């Protein structure tokens, strides 16, 4: 009963906080600037900017645990689908896409299948020219035709066994695999893009519920890097680490737009995890990093920190998702520093918070025991221009008595 009450209160508290943001105007992202200049707009929301009666509601919310949580962001999967009551995404419902033209992709796919016990039938082999940052729409549709012909209806998500390509035409490759190529996911200039029906839902079966199979890159510049990433994800499961979440508010106003969500995290999550609000451009020499969210073109000192297995870290900027040829800091740097999951955009997104992970949502869902893939994907409202990378099945806050289970694949030695 206690865990149920805690869950109910957290959901209701998040809804109240969203209403506070909306009433203050902080949740509006109309006419956002490109991330290449600083327009000097406010960079955060403090409790002082919230109307007094809303602030009182927030402070009193913990007393309202018997009130039904509101669906403030998007509807959850209906009971008719059965997904919300079922298990989470697991090895048996993940397919690995392997590029047979790339020896590194073949090696990554085989190792991930072995470590996560992915069924052999869920290894889908395709072939395309490796080593390029982008793929044309025509090339992608040929690859996707092969995938669609071979994928089992039970598969709910994809692990992509490569780092490049990270882009298809004008959109990210992870969203292209998730939902198909659609230029509604793209934008010329600072405009909204097609929303995700998976955003902040309780769906456990996104393909059954929405026709989407969210995807994540098993990314790294070498096999050893990807192997270490996979090993961190596996090692994280059920550990319930007692680290720290670093919410970094920088002096880069254009890229610091997510700091508006930090007060809500401090208010509603401090009873179950340690968070520190840092007003600085750098966090250095910390030995307990579980979450690290910031907004800068380049983040100094990340390699001085120790990231715990399962850690999530990302920076809001224009081209972090251009993994191997970015003019800014590539999101791969987080994985190289031993984070287990990260995110970046592959084309200019402008400063729409909807195009980046919402820290409050990903934290809440990860702490609730969802996998990295689920928590991260559900935190991005408009994912068309952003690429997800990491170990999809990492679940450090899942109870140990509900392990991820799959079948032992029959892999060549």
In words, what does this structure look like?
With 413 residues, this protein is of the alpha/beta class. The protein has one domain (90-399). It has eleven helices and 13 strands. A four-stranded parallel beta sheet has the order 2-1-4-7, sandwiched between helices. A four-stranded parallel beta sheet has the order 9-8-10-11. The protein is globular, with a radius of gyration of 20 Å.
What keyword list fits this structure?
413 residues; alpha/beta; disordered N terminus; disordered C terminus
Look at the structure and give the mean pLDDT: 84
Strand order of the largest sheet: 2-1-4-7
Distance between the termini: 48 Å
Strand segment count: 13
Structural class: alpha/beta
Structurally, the number of domains stands at 1
What is the overall number of helices?
11
Sheet with most strands: 4 strands, parallel
Query: What is the percent of helical residues?
Result: 25-40%
Unreliable residue stretches: 1-9, 21-31, 36-56, 62-86, 405-413
What general outline do the C-alpha atoms trace? globular
């Amino acid at each position: 009963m206690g865990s149920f009450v805690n869950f109910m209160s957290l959901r209701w508290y998040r809804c109240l906080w969203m209403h506070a943001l909306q009433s203050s105007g902080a949740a509006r992202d109309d006419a956002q600037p490109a991330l290449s200049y600083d327009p000097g707009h406010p960079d955060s929301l403090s409790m002082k900017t919230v109307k007094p009666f809303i602030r009182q509601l927030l402070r009193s919310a913990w007393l309202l645990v018997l009130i039904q949580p509101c669906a403030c962001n998007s509807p959850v999967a209906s009971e008719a689908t059965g997904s919300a009551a079922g298990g989470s995404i697991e090895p048996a419902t993940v397919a690995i896409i392997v590029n047979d033209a790339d020896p590194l992709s073949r090696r990554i796919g085989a190792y991930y299948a072995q470590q996560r016990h992915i069924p052999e039938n869920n290894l889908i082999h395709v072939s395309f020219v490796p080593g390029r940052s982008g793929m044309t729409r025509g090339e992608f549709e040929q690859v996707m035709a092969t995938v669609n012909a071979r994928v089992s209806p039970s598969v709910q998500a994809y692990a992509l066994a490569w780092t490049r390509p990270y882009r298809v035409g004008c959109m990210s490759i992870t969203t292209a695999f998730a939902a198909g190529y659609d230029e509604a996911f793209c934008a010329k200039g600072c405009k909204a893009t097609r929303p995700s029906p998976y955003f902040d839902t309780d769906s456990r079966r996104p393909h059954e519920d929405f026709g989407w199979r969210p995807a994540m890159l098993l990314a790294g510049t070498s096999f050893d890097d990807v192997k270490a990433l996979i090993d961190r994800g596996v090692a994280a499961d059920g550990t319930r680490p007692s680290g720290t979440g670093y919410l970094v508010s920088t002096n880069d106003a254009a890229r610091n737009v997510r700091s508006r969500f930090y007060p809500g995290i401090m208010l509603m999550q401090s009873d179950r995890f340690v968070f520190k609000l840092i007003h600085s451009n750098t966090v250095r020499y910390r030995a307990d990093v579980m979450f690290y969210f910031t907004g800068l073109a380049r983040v100094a000192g990340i390699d001085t920190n120790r990231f715990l297995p399962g850690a999530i870290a990302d920076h809001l900027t224009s081209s972090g998702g251009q993994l191997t040829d970015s003019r800014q800091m590539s999101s791969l740097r987080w994985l190289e520093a031993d984070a287990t999951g990260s995110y970046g955009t592959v084309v200019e997104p402008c400063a729409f918070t909807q195009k980046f992970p919402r820290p409050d949502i990903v934290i809440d869902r990860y702490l609730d025991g969802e996998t990295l893939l689920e928590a991260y994907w559900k935190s991005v409202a408009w994912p068309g221009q952003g690429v997800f990378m990491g170990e999809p099945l990492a679940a450090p806050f899942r109870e140990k008595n509900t392990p991820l289970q799959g079948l032992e694949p029959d892999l060549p030695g």
